[in-house]
């Protein structure tokens, strides 16, 4: 029957309710700053927000948002192709393209719509999509809709990409290669210099989702492609306004003039209402701050290094490279649940990730660092993990 396929989820929810643990959809009852709030009745450090630069609480962004709501209203009540293209949307498109040093940009209502919309539209029947096996759900949603032939290559593995491109022969001209900058679960950075070299050798068009790397990596914060020095090899960069920019929305930029026509072929652009003017205004201000205050990025990386070193120093299995996403890898779902709850009880609110949301069979306690965290808050997070370990709650990783 229709609901049979949901029985596992119904049973898991029942187990969580019986244990009194609420890792998915715990309610933030109050929020005091980019790094502090009240969650499920407890004063906590917010340690799983993706608020990499803390800009959701920047007074300048808040003021820009307030001012725009007063001047333009609370919503556009329509799609970009109907009544929903306001001056702010167009200005943000120019500003984001200018930030990336390319002529063309599209703004979407969410990051999910940006990646899903672009990936479902750029390639179609008769084309090929080569994507990293650990790609985000929005990328998978898009490529499945595209009608293109879908081939996965091994995560962050340029040799595997090269092998598969080689096999395509002349079809490479119709091939879209999709990778991310920083992967959201383990915080690992893609080897973009190597991927770009493979693209130069075999061909194809390169699409990079910089959702977690924009504002975080690169000399001016453009992301992993900038950090790797390969922007000239990139055909499309997509990203989100919901992480380092502290708002909501998404974008795609490109050196290709065709992007202007492509936008009118993207259902996720055409058939959804455009972002609220207040969100556009705060995002524009946040982008201005990213461009003018590189010290925020430095603070973010100092904090990331401190947390990574602290957790690795406890002997925990963390991601392969230092990054603002610091994930602790565990094998057992029940142990992960218990740790997540114990961290919350200790005043540290992190993300819990279990399969199928995590890329493999493992579970994660996913911490994300912000430039707005104080050194003291980072140390409190490390101390909370140390206490879990002392109490025998945090099992040692077997290395399997
Ligand atoms: N791409 C990646 C890699 C992401 O991690 C996310 C969000 N987690 C998105 C796209 C979607 O962005 P948003 O949540 O802003 O819609």
Which descriptors would you attach to this protein?
single chain; 400 residues; 14 helices; Aspartate Aminotransferase, domain 1; binds 4'-deoxy-4'-aminopyridoxal-5'-phosphate; alpha/beta; Aspartate Aminotransferase, domain 2
How would you describe what is shown here?
With 400 residues, this protein is an alpha/beta fold. It has two domains: 16-46 and 294-390, Aspartate Aminotransferase, domain 1 (Alpha-Beta Complex), CATH 3.90.1150; 59-292, Aspartate Aminotransferase, domain 2. The protein has 14 helices and 14 strands. Strands 4-10-9-8-7-5-6 form a seven-stranded mixed sheet, with helices on both faces. Strands 1-2-3-12 form a four-stranded mixed sheet. It has a three-stranded antiparallel sheet with strand order 11-14-13, covered by helices on one side. Helix 7 (192-202) links the parallel strand 7 (175-180) and strand 8 (205-209). The model has no long low-confidence stretch (mean pLDDT 95). The chain binds 4'-deoxy-4'-aminopyridoxal-5'-phosphate.
Per-chain topology:
Layout: H1 7-19, E1 28-31, E2 36-39, E3 42-46, H2 59-72, H3 87-100, E4 104-108, H4 111-122, E5 128-132, H5 137-146, E6 149-153, H6 158-168, E7 175-180, H7 192-202, E8 205-209, H8 224-228, E9 236-240, E10 250-254, H9 259-262, H10 267-270, H11 277-292, H12 295-313, E11 325-330, H13 333-345, E12 348-349, E13 351-353, E14 363-368, H14 375-390
Helix pairs in contact: 2-11, 3-11, 4-5, 6-7, 12-14
Bound molecules: 4'-deoxy-4'-aminopyridoxal-5'-phosphate.
């Amino acid at each position: 029957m229709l609901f049979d396929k949901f029985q596992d989820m119904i049973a898991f929810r029942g187990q969580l309710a019986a244990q009194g643990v609420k890792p998915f959809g715990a309610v933030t009852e109050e929020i005091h700053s980019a790094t502090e709030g009240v969650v499920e009745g407890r004063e906590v450090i917010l340690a799983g927000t993706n608020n990499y630069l803390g800009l959701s609480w920047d007074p300048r962004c808040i003021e820009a948002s307030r001012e725009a709501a007063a001047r333009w209203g609370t919503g556009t009540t329509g799609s970009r192709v109907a009544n929903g293209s306001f001056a702010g949307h167009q200005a943000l498109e120019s500003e984001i393209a200018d930030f990336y040093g390319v002529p063309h940009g599209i703004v979407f209502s969410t990051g999910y719509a940006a990646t899903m919309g672009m990936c479902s539209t750029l390639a179609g029947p008769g084309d090929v999509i080569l994507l990293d096996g650990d790609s985000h759900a929005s990328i998978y949603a898009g490529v499945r809709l595209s009608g293109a032939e879908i081939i996965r290559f091994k995560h962050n593995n340029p040799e595997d990409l090269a092998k598969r491109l080689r096999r395509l022969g002349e079809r490479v001209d119709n091939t879209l290669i999709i990778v991310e900058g920083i992967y959201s679960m383990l915080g690992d950075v893609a080897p973009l210099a190597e991927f770009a070299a493979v693209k130069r050798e075999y061909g194809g068009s390169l699409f990079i989702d910089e959702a977690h790397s924009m504002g975080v990596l690169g000399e001016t914060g453009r992301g992993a492609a900038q950090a790797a020095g390969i922007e000239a090899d990139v055909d499309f960069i997509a990203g989100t306004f919901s992480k380092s920019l502290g708002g909501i929305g998404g974008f795609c930029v490109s050196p290709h003039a065709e992007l202007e026509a492509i936008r009118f072929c993207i259902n996720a652009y055409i058939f959804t209402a455009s972002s609220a003017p207040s969100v556009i205004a705060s995002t524009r201000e946040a982008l201005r701050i990213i461009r003018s205050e590189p010290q925020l990025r430095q603070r973010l990386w100092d904090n990331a290094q401190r947390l990574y070193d602290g957790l690795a120093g406890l002997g925990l299995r963390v991601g392969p490279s230092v990054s603002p996403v610091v994930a602790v890898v565990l094998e057992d779902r029940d142990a992960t649940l218990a740790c997540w709850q114990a961290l919350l009880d200790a005043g540290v609110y992190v993300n819990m990730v279990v399969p199928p949301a995590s890329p493999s069979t493992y579970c994660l306690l996913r911490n994300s660092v912000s430039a707005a965290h104080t050194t003291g808050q980072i140390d409190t997070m490390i101390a909370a993990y140390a206490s879990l370990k002392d109490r025998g709650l945090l099992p040692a990783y077997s290395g399997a």
